[in-house]
Design a protein that fits this description.
Layout lengths: L2 E6 L5 H7 L3 H9 L1 E4 L13 E7 L2 E3 H12 L1 E7 L1 H5 L11 H11 L14 E6 L9 E3 L6 H12 L60 H4 L17 H12 L1 H4 L4 H8 L8 H6 L6
């Protein structure tokens, strides 16, 4: 019987809720194995020893979370990063564009409706949000915001049956039904600026769709619904930096569109989920991860 831990850092629970969404598959896993630690599902106080499979969601932002992550790694045979925050730093990682103290001051002192005296005390806050892989060895990653239940089920059932799990090696464009005709807009547009052709590729129309730079396997639900892919599944299997891959795609597709492209303006789009683990972050940090 395999002993399983499920924990969320930084107050995250969304990816754990996605795990509960496995329904009958989860019941089968729990029937054949033992859930030994999962604060959102059971009353547990202490992290146990000799964990077979540990699943952690959420990024690392405090010293306590660093200590917790390292303790779980030491006590686990296999560690899985669940969700894009755990895998890459996630949306909260965009806060890394400012230093921690500067960010707190901006939010709680400089915004309208805030009072400087209401500044919260955050115990042992780290300067940057990081992925758990920046502190410990991660055996498997299940990206997504939240992850696809099919990916969670596939990874867990394969791993628990003694196999080697694998995620998609394609990009989101692979399963996108929108037509590509090879003609591109001369400028980049926001989705609210113009009514998109419901049949054509959004990127060809000038909407910054992250499909070419994002891991496939989700079925392209966003482009199918008329919204550009926002890159929540992180980089494709053959690329480590999602933003650079997207920049390369833009350069290859349309020279004209690049004329109104600004990295400072679009950084939050091309690195929405992966900024802390990106090459850009390393350059801005002088080569330091933390």
């Amino acid at each position: 019987m395999v002993k399983i831990l499920l924990l969320g850092l930084s107050g995250d629970t969304g990816c754990q809720v996605a795990t509960v969404g496995l329904h009958e598959v989860l019941l089968g896993i729990l029937k054949a194995n033992e859930l030994v630690y999962a604060p959102t599902l059971m009353d547990t106080k202490e992290i146990p020893d000799k964990i077979d499979v540990a699943i952690i969601e959420g990024g690392v932002r405090t010293e306590h979370e660093v200590e917790t992550t390292k303790k779980i790694r030491e006590r686990s045979s296999v560690l899985i990063a669940l969700g894009s925050c755990a895998c890459f730093g996630g949306v909260p990682g965009l806060a890394n564009l400012k230093e921690g103290d500067e960010l707190l001051d901006m939010i709680y002192s400089e915004q309208k409706g805030t009072v400087a005296s209401d500044m919260p005390t955050v115990d042992k806050l780290l300067p940057k949000q990081q992925a758990i892989g920046d502190y410990v060895k991660v055996d498997y990653r299940i990206p997504g915001c939240p992850p696809e239940t099919g990916d969670i089920a596939g990874i867990l059932t394969t791993l628990l049956s003694g196999g080697t799990p694998e995620l998609s090696k394609t990009d989101v464009c692979e399963l996108c039904p929108r037509e590509r005709i090879g003609e591109y807009s001369k400028k980049l547009k926001r989705i609210y600026e113009e009514v998109a052709d419901p049949e054509r590729c959004l990127l060809e129309q000038g909407f910054l769709c992250m499909g070419p730079a994002t891991m496939g396997g989700c079925g392209a639900p966003c482009p199918k619904a008329g919204m550009p892919c926002d890159g929540c599944r992180g980089p494709t299997a053959g690329n480590s930096d999602q933003g650079l891959t997207m920049l390369d795609a833009l350069t290859s597709l349309t020279k004209e569109a690049n004329e109104n492209f600004s990295l400072s303006e679009y950084a939050g789009t091309i690195y929405r989920y992966t900024y802390p683990t990106s090459q850009l972050a390393k350059v801005l940090n002088g080569g330091r991860k933390k």
